[in-house]
């Protein structure tokens, strides 16, 4: 066996897991796609986000909180090893509301969730005037915001790059330009690629994003993931305008204002549309009117990797024990948990996190 | 020192334009980037990445090195014409809260 | 929204010829160009400037005036100063004109987006005072503005044209620093047979050269290790020539080593492109009519492969005939009858091209810049950084874009794309086609959020975000 683990998928999810396994001294091979692959890792919004997650499944809210809390150390260690500043800022984030009704309704949901989490859900409600003190450029039509103190954001592209560098530095073998065509388990796992490459490993992690839908069933998984398009905008680099991130806009560490995102069920189409761009621009201006004069320099569409209920899937194959499906929508938020705690679960450690609610049994 | 550029047939009608707080008399209707160069302006902006000085490079709207700020909007000087009273600033070098 | 039979993007020779031919055949045509006056870069501002500077610029320039006049024909809507920023299925074309966004629809789209200067990343090329040779020409054509102390650097006939124009205007360049070598000329000799069929181009070149020599402009060929020095602006060019180091003080440096198709709009429509080894650039795959692999999208002129103004004009006419035929305005026989002499003329005009491409290859130093050289002007990314990203597993430019931001700035890769592809191809031992190019998306040119938002159908702020 050349590796303890073969990881299919070299995006943020796969590399985070690889990084965590390598830190435990395990031998890891990562198979990655090519330049044209659908890559949520380079199209995402970059939030390290807790609020609004797991409204119907408190364990997911908790798992997000666990990861958000681990992000600081994770970013520091990865940053030190690679010389990359991951741009992590965790001083809270907003959910803006344009009507009292929607604000009130959301607060009620948050209160209910807070009860289920034994009170560990630190948020406060800011009215327009209080919000204006925090965000001087806020628009008149924003009636208020929920400020959740566990929220934040990072530079997701530098995270991707740092992981790619550090996985290699720690001896991880990363094979690029690979398309997996065949999976078998004669003894250990045997993964065959389109170009004839064969990788053998004791265990297998499937973290191929949307590719899991196709490869999952070959390993005995349901892998019911589907694409959901998000269009995202980014402006020219600007002086500081936005203090804290929100689901509408954030100012990235390089200065541009990132605006997102649409939620569109359009299959594997990751294109950009004028109506999509216009809708996002209008919403951003409603939140921060001064943005009207900003130049949009770039936009993109990226495909979220969504399960039917939006929660991550962590499952060991019953058919092929030793094969694990790891997939989620929030690969940035969960990067720290995937790097720090998921390896314990993969290795069957006694103090491994309880991820049972994220299994595929919930889809039967 | 002589300006780096000379005008073959200097325009008769020149209008006042403000650039970075200075008043320049530029040929009305002329290409703004060209007019600034001919008036002896060497640096139109500083990059947001390193602060390096930049000036017109391609003159055809493709390189975005001639960006200037006019009425709070950052635009390509090579795609604009000289109009009397233009208030031009180097991008985002003024007060961020008012001008963007 | 107004709907046209044909939308023409770009009012250079290809676009103007397309519009005139299509309108004459009875099609409704809308021409969109971002410049305030038609002509493209080759005939920029020709209606205003020909009378004033025609003697300096020459007849190759002044002959563009009738084409511009042709845009005033019936059946043509000419939208000048219209910056196109999105072309979508349908086709729905979004543009900004006079600070407001607007849209048209068209059954077919002809892209006549012309050429860009081939990126020429040399040490110091981002300094103020360094411009493309094409920019130098635009200063002269449009405004009669000349650089007093300029050095021309690179290779290709355009350098001679500009030098000769500067001589005629009374401000000859301080020097011509050329990168092509005697060996290139010898290699090019095998194309001489074809070149002689295109003798007019060669004769023109010899005439320009004679003007430059008469003016005693110093020429250096086979220049290497070129560097532009200066703190806040260009102050000198240093280089070696036949083993000797040179330094020429100057205020202005004009760079040129060929032009390449401007493929931004075509790529945004996912048009298939292929590497053209002779011209050292990507070009869209087209049939003889300029039709690409995307239905309803045609490409004419330098944007479809470099051929120059005359070839562009012919290609525009051919595309227009093809569309007129498809829409039933002319029958197939008429189309072919009218196309035959155009196809012949195009072959004639292209005859000298292989010789010129071989005799004036791109500067090797700028195709494989040293590590410290900035290759992405917008995000200030160096060649060394790109090579480093290749070591981190980046196979293509969309991966390096995510890693180090090259191509993410406002120029959207126009002046780094080919360099990044070349660096990655070299580092990964792949071809240019395998390496690929940036994925280009709207907006093709920056647009303000207010302009975008003004086109929004829904009320602002009502969209609720999905929770997960």
TrEMBL record, chain A:
Kindly state one GO CC term assigned in the UniProt record. cytoplasm
* Start and end residues of each FAD dependent oxidoreductase domain: 4-342
Q: Name one GO molecular function term.
A: oxidoreductase activity
Report whether Transmembrane shows up as a keyword of the record: yes
Q: Is this entry keyworded Transmembrane?
A: yes
Which keywords fit this entry according to its UniProt record? Membrane, Oxidoreductase, Transmembrane, Transmembrane helix
Show the Gene3D superfamilies listed in the entry: D-Amino Acid Oxidase, subunit A, domain 2, FAD/NAD(P)-binding domain
**Record-annotated membrane-spanning stretches:** 6-22
Q: Which SUPFAM superfamilies does the entry link to? A: FAD-linked reductases, C-terminal domain, FAD/NAD(P)-binding domain
Q: List the PANTHER family.
A: GLYCINE OXIDASE, SARCOSINE DEHYDROGENASE-RELATED
- Its protein name is Glycine/D-amino acid oxidase
Which organism is this entry from?
Roseovarius tolerans
Automatic annotation (TrEMBL), chain B:
Q: What UniProt keywords are attached to this protein's entry?
A: Oxidoreductase
Q: Which residues form a coiled coil?
A: none
Name the Gene3D superfamilies for this protein. 2Fe-2S iron-sulphur cluster binding domain, sarcosine oxidase, alpha subunit, N-terminal domain
From the UniProt record, which GO molecular function terms apply?
iron-sulfur cluster binding; oxidoreductase activity
User: Does the record's keyword annotation contain Oxidoreductase?
Assistant: yes
Q: Which InterPro entries match?
A: 2Fe-2S-bd_N (IPR042204), 2Fe-2S_ferredoxin-like_sf (IPR036010)
**Protein name (Swiss-Prot/TrEMBL):** 2Fe-2S iron-sulfur cluster binding domain-containing protein
Q: Which organism is it from?
A: Roseovarius tolerans
Automatic annotation (TrEMBL), chain C:
List the InterPro entries hit by this protein, alphabetically.
BFD-like_2Fe2S-bd_dom_sf, FAD/NAD-bd_sf, FAD/NAD-binding_dom, Metab_Enz_Cyan_OpOx_G3PDH, Opine_Oxase_asu/HCN_bsu, SoxA_A3
Question: Superkingdom of the source?
Answer: Bacteria
Q: Which residues form the FAD/NAD(P)-binding domain?
A: 4-312
Which keywords label this protein?
Oxidoreductase
Any one GO MF annotation of this record: oxidoreductase activity
Give residue ranges for domain SoxA A3. Answer: 380-454
Could you tell me what this protein is called?
A: Thioredoxin reductase
